[in-house]
Amino acid sequence: MIQVTVNGSAHRFERPLAVEELIARLELAGKKVAVERNGEIVPKSAHGVTQVADGDALEIVVAVGGG
Amino acid sequence: MAKGDELVVAGRSYSSRLLVGTGKYKDFAETRSAIEASGAQIVTVAIRRTNIGQTRGEPSLLEFLPPSQFTYLPNTAGCYNAQDAVRTLRLARELLDGHKLVKLEVLGDPQSLYPNMPETLAAAKQLVGEGFEVMVYCSDDPIQAKMLEDLGCVAVMPLASLIGSGMGILNPWNLQLVIERVGVPVLVDAGVGTASDAAIAMELGCDGVLMNTAIAAAKHPVMMAQAMKKAVEAGREAFLAGRMPKKHYTATPSSPTTGTITSSQPKAA
């Protein structure tokens, strides 16, 4: 079991997983998002190979209306 | 619009000198209609955490305003220090497939939303070093504006009055000092309330105007967007045309002074 923080909230997964799988598990697959892991950008091209480990902090963002 | 008169930012030309925000509309359809009516080609967007578990099937802004049709200008609204602003724009660049043109704003406090200039300068330096093309919200201080230009910012965007206040152009003198001092485009960002404010900014010689609330919070946003488009164009043309000099306390007739049928004329005092 691992625990990671996504957008400030705790999420538990039964095992370490890749960013791509995490996105799918959070029902964000296919959505245009950008991901930061422990303060570093995870490029889209690396979503499949970047593993999320216990204690990681992730930010997943989208574009919204703003001035 | 005067022929061939384009706004050039970071080497790209835009026929519209009106930049608009995409916030505060009642829905994406209204956002789209208002932005189309404004004729804006550059639109600002904010970068925010996605709602996890609540967004399935929800439309996204990018579907209503395709990045292929508009130049996106991701902003750092809500950032109060350089580090948060830099992080936000790195995420924006990743989100928008390597897009480099950004709007930097580092705020001082939530009451005034006035720019924190030391943090703004620090963030600008960092972002320019990382290859971003930085359009920067700043105070209407010509010295700071020049510092931002010297750091490599592609446009400086002083506030005309507080963000979202609609109080208009409060210090045209300072705006003029900024316009005279810097070589990069100067855009008024924040404070425009109605069409005449936008026209005044352009008449002063600003290269463009960026607004959001003035359109979105109007009773009829689409109509206001049209009005702003005309105001920016009218103000720009008036600037290019070169206004007549003001003659204080002196009238000059527009019609011939001879050949009138009047029998007498009062003497000048």
Describe, in short, the structure shown.
The complex is a heterodimer of chains A (67) and B (269). By secondary structure, chain A is mainly beta.
Task: Write structural notes for this entry.
The complex is a heterodimer of chains A (67) and B (269). Chain A has one domain (2-62): Ubiquitin-like (UB roll) (Roll), CATH 3.10.20.30. Helix content of chain A is 10%, strand content 45%. Chain A contains 1 helix and 7 strands. Chain A has a 5-stranded mixed beta sheet with strand order 2-1-7-4-5, with no helix packed on it. Chain A starts with a strand and ends with a strand. With 269 residues, chain B is an alpha/beta fold. Chain B has helices spanning 28-38, 61-64, 82-95, 117-129, 142-151, 172-181, 195-204, 213-216, 221-241; strands at residues 7-9, 12-14, 18-21, 42-49, 71-74, 101-104, 133-138, 155-158, 187-189, 208-211. Chain B is globular, with a radius of gyration of 21 Å. β7 (57-65) of chain A pairs antiparallel with β4 of chain B.
